[in-house]
Design a protein that fits this description.
The chain is built from no helices and eleven strands. It is mainly beta. The strands form two sheets. Strands 2, 4, 5, 6, 9, 10 and 11 form a seven-stranded mixed sheet that branches. Strands 1-3-8-7 form a four-stranded antiparallel sheet, with no helix packed on it. It is globular, with a radius of gyration of 13 Å.
């Protein structure tokens, strides 16, 4: 089963920054619709951001809660997607998951076929 591989999580102070990475070995990365989701303790997994691929100009979309603070991007040559997180808040604390799909770009968990194992992000106040 194909899985994605996240890295870059850790501990940050409120107002700080972290950058997450997501690699997609074994997949045709340049044709993948990709996204980030997160899940806080006791809560459902929620959408964070998504990015189209080059045919769609790598257009990015964001959840309102992270708009203006987070930036999603991709490097097709490195087969890696990124999430630059700035101005972090304690409420950003969660396990962050990357997701990918060959056919669609959506803002719901059920829209993605491939998932990573998650990386913990903890923001202290």
């Amino acid at each position: 089963q194909v899985t994605l591989v996240e890295s870059g999580g850790g501990l940050a102070q409120a107002g700080g920054s972290l950058r997450l990475s997501c690699a997609a070995p074994g997949l045709t990365f340049s044709r993948l619709f990709m996204a980030w989701f997160r899940q806080a303790p006791g809560k459902e997994r929620e959408y964070v951001a998504r990015i189209m691929y080059s045919f769609y100009d790598n257009t990015a979309y964001y959840a309102d809660s992270v708009k203006g603070r987070f930036t999603i991007s991709r490097d097709d040559a490195k087969k890696t997607m990124y999430l630059q997180m700035n101005s972090l808040k304690p409420e950003d604390t969660a396990v962050y998951y990357c997701a990918a799909d060959n056919a669609r770009s959506m803002e719901v968990v059920s829209g993605y076929e491939y998932w990573g194992q998650g990386t913990q992000v903890t923001v202290s106040s």
